[in-house]
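ping. complex inputs:
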Amino acid sequence: MIRRAPRGLAEHAPILFPALMLVVFFVIPFSLMIAVSVFRRVPGGFYEPDLVFANYERFLTAFFGGVMSFSLGLAALVAALAVGIAFPFTYRLVRLSRGAQIRWLVFLLSILSLSEVIIGFAWSTLLSRTAGITNLFVALGLMAEPQSLSPSFGALLAGLVYQAFPYTVLVLYPALARLDPYLEEAARTLGSSPLRAFFTVVVPALRNTIVATTIMVFVFALGSYLLPQLLGRPQHWTLSVLITDQAIYQSNMPFAAAMAVFLVLVSLALVGLALLAGRREETA
Amino acid sequence: MLMRTLNSLAAGLIALVLSAPILVVAGVSVNEKKSLTFPPQGFSLSWYAEVFTDPGWRGALVTSLVVATLSAALAVLIAFPLAWFLWRWRAPWARAFEVLGMTPFILPPVITALGFLSFWAAVGEYGSPWTVVVSHAVFFVTLPLVTLSLGFGAVDRSYVEAAATMGADDRTVLRTVVMPLVRPYVISGFAFAFVLSLNEYIVAYMVVGFTLETLPIKIFNALRYGYTPTMAAVTVLFVSLTALVFGLIAWFGDLPRLLGAWAKND
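pong. complex structure:
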């Protein structure tokens, strides 16, 4: 079989269907959303074609600035916590037997694919007064009576880290699985303790992977749209929640679209940075 | 020695925290009375029965299963020819479609959801039940695309050359040599897309939220009217189904390899 450039319609035919589907159902909707962001809202829930930047001007308000900085700060905190826990965990995971690794991977994949609705419901139950963890504390004599821990910032943070942890492990997994085990052994032979070898050899060797993963988890956390509603208070609403709220409940599609365009730009810039950081590691 | 004990302890703690919410929900789901207490009072499986006997819950379950099956199948139908084309021909320009297939998965989901909402509204199909199938298929096409690129990449080209030398054309090679080799990757791509579609909320909600109730939408709507043990029972069923599907992928396929090369292809 010679791998040359395809010629004629017959050889191009197989790609027609996938190309058509992706252009019609992804490129066009995406472009349409960008277009809607400069449309004018018509009271009553619809919009008219136009070229106005009023939707973007609303970004300058203090309210939007507050939501934006809260979203970014929260995503950064979640990314730092998730990578901080997941990195040492994955480092141990890739050294387990194949069977044990597979059991962990199935477990992590199952949690990762859980609906945000289910994660939110499960955590609010775990933190509730009637069924929650505080009942255990009462039974152990640590607390006088059970109380509700949700909604609160702590509950939201716990839910988000819970959701991001399996994702972080799976992003780190390939890089750590391919890390040369002799690196740590050499350090150990030269007399460093396991902890010292981990922090002075393994972590610096994978610095770019850690940076790239942190950025990817940041973007992942930025996308959370339900947990802030289920586990947080209204002041904990993030940009993703605000977009949903404007699109569905306030019927202000142009403003929702403008915020979405903004979110796309932030995410794409960050993903670009992550790819750059990841590539530098491969060439190094 | 101390290090090893600490490591197992940390791993055990992580396993406990990861399963704690699910365990509490499982406990709540067997309450005898209609209350969410833990530890459960009494033991009853009637809430599980209600998932199948109550028309609302059963309808949502059936809807979710149908949507997930159809959209995963469509996602594979989109991904297969694309991955095959990229493997068979030297066509750098076609990589652009691969990137397109990866994008919706990397961006925050609310963006894709909003794009679909504006699109279906513009073409006058907003709310039609079939639109969620197409939307999910495009949203999750990344998964079969990644597993299939991996599958084709693993095919030894000398088999293909041997077949071609003996006079097999492209179609025969695909059917008799390539297809049997990539079948596990087709199945795992389908399974990944199926599970994610089953659990997906925001795209489904924005596209057909007012006309069709998938299970995640039904759970979310039920959350607003107060909690019932039925929601806990549905959650337990869903978690088990999800774990079962991934268990099957691990059983029949090479899960570490699937995940190891996953990020390499991103």
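Chain A touches chain B through 88 residues (CB under 8 Å).
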